[in-house]
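Section handout 9: paired folding examples.
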Amino acid sequence: MRASRQHEQPDPRITTARRLDLLPLAVEHAAEMAAVLGDPGLHTFIGGAPATPDALRSRYERLVAGSPDPGTVWWNWVIRLREEDRLVGTVQATVGSSARGTVAELAWVVGTPWQGRGIATEAAGALVSWLARRQVSAVIAHIHPDHLASAAVATAAGLSATDQWQDDERLWRLEIQR
């Protein structure tokens, strides 16, 4: 993976066998996603507050434009639940180089009405598989120690908790074997 291919996605859409489509993030998703992410309780562990559609549109414009750092690639998807034909969350990977190879930092969020149905687990697992086919040597996530649901998602995706911490969050890691 070369940094010069900053925003190129060879396979922009990721489809799971079971029920999800991971669609590349587009500015047009902002209005629907503002409703999906609108529960203030959703922000307990991720911080912040629900964004208005306009604020989310501005954020999505920045994300779609790509990282200003040529050594970092931003890949962002919305999660579409096929059976309901609606967006229900997001997954993302921030990919960059480290001394140990190319590392992808993952994040995921699923709207409150769709939690507890395995959607984040399915989406994160699909993303890890997709990244493993793209020369990524490790996948990491930072998870608050009280966020048991995200810890379960990370575990299901193959990540393991480490003894490293950053900003009160534990680092989880998966080394991709080549």
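Moving on to protein 2 of 2.
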Amino acid sequence: MTSTAATTRYALITGANKGLGRETARQLGRLGMTVLIGARDDERGERAARELREDGLDARFLRLDVTDQAVVDRAAADIRREYGRLDVLINNAGVVEADQNPSETTVETTERIYRTNVFGVIAVTHAVLPLLRAAGAGRVVNVSSRLGSLHKAADLAAPHRALLAYNSSKAALNSLTLHYAREFADTPLKFNSVTPGAVPTDLSCHQGNRTVEEGARVVVRLATLAADGPTGGFFDDHGPVAW
């Protein structure tokens, strides 16, 4: 391994060909990281990586469908072969259902949402965990949402977008964060959840009061935590968020 390879930091962002994932890759790239653009679609993923390279960043496409275990395993093997480790994992890929009453949400819809938002996170995290441990001080950031906050949902008098499948999947994601953080509490690995706020992306039907640049900043902050940084937390750019 060359001295350059030994000092380069590698970050994998799932769902990184557009929106928040792509902007997160851009910001991490500007910090000098090699960013791996995880995406299901080869053309879109290659284009995103190419455009980031045209901006002077070290961006590389990695075919990754978080709902396909075989593809996840191949991606992890590719990272192991090419880089030997992974410094940052950002579980950003996510899907949402159309607005409807919770009682009208089907099992099929809920399974589809969970397949990406929960099971996909488990699949990718487990596949690259040896690579994160090989990095010595890996950082895992799970992109969640305030809609996953049970504290917020419990206030029945407050306005709340009641998306049964999406909201509960993000609550489950937050639970995953806590379980991983607890298991690795005595190691340099750190696991945190983050809510980027309402940013205008495909996921939000391009509605939101924050830019993707603003939303990505808190993701990047947690991805680059120092050794004395927190683990097992849920954060926005102002600090901890109630679970």
